[in-house]
């Protein structure tokens, strides 16, 4: 594979990851992080860059579909997991892209309803999805460079024109807050969803390429896209931190980004931001709907009709859910993320480690432990936090809503240790 092919694939990966949540979350994180912006940035980039890129590396290893991520637990579990992830994806992050586009790119310029925005938006998404063989070239060659150019203008202007004064952090636990805010990007879920889109697109372009060639291409493109995401996220967090005293402390995510754009780009801010939001959100919506349609198509014997029907349903859901404002969609998404995100992270990590450390038994034990210890975080996110405090305080990191981490790690070690002892016997 040529360097040009690697670059195009990396651009496509970057663009498919970088959507609505990725755009509006980092500035507010920086705005509230104060002098500890770097600690928040590290936490955010772990869940929003490192884990997703590991998901792409897992795809490079598996070169299958999302079903392959969880099949070692059991085929039934994998099927339920896939349907759950795709249902969440087309019901929350995909519609959120239309909501963000309307609030930041359309509403400030034109007096039109969110319904009209959503209809036009998802009509265009549908056109791209049904012409999926062209996704890689169109996204990689044309859309991503525009996103990068506008972002660099905003970040560069802030860094080179403002004094490095950051104020005091508003977070009790900056590092874990950054990790949990990274959940809202949906990037770990995005990795298992859009990674399959990239693989299918590569197969359509060069079906004769060997497993090793495709693996090398995906790995190199993945790390390159990850570097780009890391630099952009960190830049946006620094930018938000530099404007810590320029806006109302209770300003919304979308209003903050609009305000930063106005202060850095002046009179051209609205137009520039409109282009940025439209491109970033649109490419993510295309990736989500395409990935969902691919999965359903595979479940129905590669039926083209199933692919088209799924794309239509995904776009209709996008229109319906896109009527809600961004803040509401983010709040609604939290319970689902507190449950499904830890499972997704664990599945990614288990698929990345060497096979000798990730037998079916290890998969089953670690995933079961993760599900069990994610339940308190899920209950806390739907308003039962006080009722389970006496339980969560005994779980390491439970108060930080990450009580699943250490139990899953301990079970992983124990399962491998016991497996090796049984092999000796």
Automatic annotation (TrEMBL):
<feature type="transmembrane region" description="Helical">
    <location>
        <begin position="223"/>
        <end position="243"/>
    </location>
</feature>
<dbReference type="GO" id="GO:0015818">
    <property type="term" value="P:isoleucine transport"/>
</dbReference>
<keyword id="KW-0472">Membrane</keyword>
<feature type="transmembrane region" description="Helical">
    <location>
        <begin position="328"/>
        <end position="350"/>
    </location>
</feature>
<dbReference type="GO" id="GO:0015190">
    <property type="term" value="F:L-leucine transmembrane transporter activity"/>
</dbReference>
<feature type="transmembrane region" description="Helical">
    <location>
        <begin position="36"/>
        <end position="60"/>
    </location>
</feature>
<dbReference type="GO" id="GO:0005304">
    <property type="term" value="F:L-valine transmembrane transporter activity"/>
</dbReference>
<keyword id="KW-0812">Transmembrane</keyword>
<feature type="transmembrane region" description="Helical">
    <location>
        <begin position="72"/>
        <end position="92"/>
    </location>
</feature>
<keyword id="KW-1133">Transmembrane helix</keyword>
<feature type="transmembrane region" description="Helical">
    <location>
        <begin position="402"/>
        <end position="419"/>
    </location>
</feature>
<feature type="transmembrane region" description="Helical">
    <location>
        <begin position="112"/>
        <end position="130"/>
    </location>
</feature>
<keyword id="KW-1003">Cell membrane</keyword>
<keyword id="KW-0029">Amino-acid transport</keyword>
<dbReference type="GO" id="GO:0005886">
    <property type="term" value="C:plasma membrane"/>
</dbReference>
<comment type="similarity">
    <text>Belongs to the branched chain amino acid transporter family.</text>
</comment>
<feature type="transmembrane region" description="Helical">
    <location>
        <begin position="142"/>
        <end position="162"/>
    </location>
</feature>
<feature type="transmembrane region" description="Helical">
    <location>
        <begin position="362"/>
        <end position="382"/>
    </location>
</feature>
<protein>
    <submittedName>
        <fullName>Branched-chain amino acid transport system II carrier protein</fullName>
    </submittedName>
</protein>
<feature type="transmembrane region" description="Helical">
    <location>
        <begin position="182"/>
        <end position="202"/>
    </location>
</feature>
<feature type="transmembrane region" description="Helical">
    <location>
        <begin position="305"/>
        <end position="322"/>
    </location>
</feature>
<dbReference type="GO" id="GO:0015820">
    <property type="term" value="P:L-leucine transport"/>
</dbReference>
<dbReference type="Pfam" id="PF05525">
    <property type="entry name" value="Branch_AA_trans"/>
</dbReference>
<dbReference type="InterPro" id="IPR004685">
    <property type="entry name" value="Brnchd-chn_aa_trnsp_Livcs"/>
</dbReference>
<keyword id="KW-0813">Transport</keyword>
<feature type="transmembrane region" description="Helical">
    <location>
        <begin position="271"/>
        <end position="293"/>
    </location>
</feature>
<dbReference type="GO" id="GO:0015188">
    <property type="term" value="F:L-isoleucine transmembrane transporter activity"/>
</dbReference>
